[in-house]
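Tokens for LytTR family transcriptional regulator. Go.
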Amino acid sequence: MSCDDIVYFEKKGRQAVIHTISENFKANMTTEEIWKQLDDKVFAHIHVSYIINLGHIRAIDGDEVVMDNEERLLIARSHKQNLKEKHMEFVRRMV
């Protein structure tokens, strides 16, 4: 599985659910363990429960981010400005 296939990570209790384009996987990992393996230029922490792939953002709509798979994820107020900045940097690098 490539990092490009990962849409987002969702923390559910002791498990992390890895949501990919085609399927979901479960892993026993902490948020810190997940972060150590990710490129912070490609992924953003938007909520205590979510780490998203910036390449799969369709839109930022108020307090939610709309992903390619049409899922809407809540953005914590404390992460909103950082998400907007990281997303703009990501888009600029892709142009």
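Residues 77-94 form the longest helix (18 residues).
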